[in-house]
Amino acid sequence: MEIVGDYEYNNKDLIGHGAFAVVFKGRHRKKSNFPVAIKSITKKSLAKSQNLLGKEIKILKELTELHHENVVALLDCKESQHNVYLVMELCIG
Q1: Are 88 and 39 spatial neighbours (Cβ–Cβ below 8 Å)?
Q2: Looking at the whole model, is its pTM more than 0.90?
Q3: Cα dihedral angle (43, 49, 51, 55), rounded to 10 degrees?
Q4: What is the largest CA-CA distance in the chain?
Q5: How far apart are CA 52 and CA 55, in angstroms?
Q6: Which residues are CB-contacts of 62 (< 8 A; sequence separation ≥ 6)?
Q7: Cβ neighbours, 10 Å, residue 78
Q8: Collapsed DSSP state (helix, strand, coil) of residue 91
Q9: Which of 4, 29, 42, 49 has the most CB within a 10 Å radius?
C-alpha cells in the first residue's frame, strides 16, 4: 500500500491514466469504507506545466467549496519528492 496523508492506495487499483498523471482507487486509512480517487502526477512531467497544476488545484478547491452534487470534491493535496497527489471524491458511474 502507498500512503498519501490520511489516505492509501494499491498500485494494482488503477482507474485510468493520461499524459501527466495516473489515477488509483484508494481509501481513507481510518475509515476503510470511504473510497477516494488518488491522482498521482509526476513532477518530471510537470517541468513546463507547473503553473497549470497550481491553477487546477486552485479551481478544484474553489469548486469543492460549492458542495454541489455534480462537482467532484478535492479532499486533500499532498506532495512527495517525485509526485504531487490530488485526493478526490470517487465517482462511480
Answers
A1: yes
A2: no
A3: -90
A4: 38
A5: 5
A6: none
A7: 15
A8: coil
A9: 4
Distance, CA of 44 to CA of 59 (rounded, Å): 22
CB 58 within 8 A of CB 50: no
- Nine cell digits for residue 75: 479532499
C-alpha grid cell, residue 92: 462511480
Tell the CATH topology of 2-89.
Phosphorylase Kinase; domain 1 (3.30.200)
Amino acid letter for position 12: K
pLDDT in tens, the chain (93 residues): 999 999 999 999 999 998 889 999 999 999 989 999 999 998 887 776 767 888 888 998 999 998 888 889 999 999 999 999 999 999 887
Annotated binding site: 39
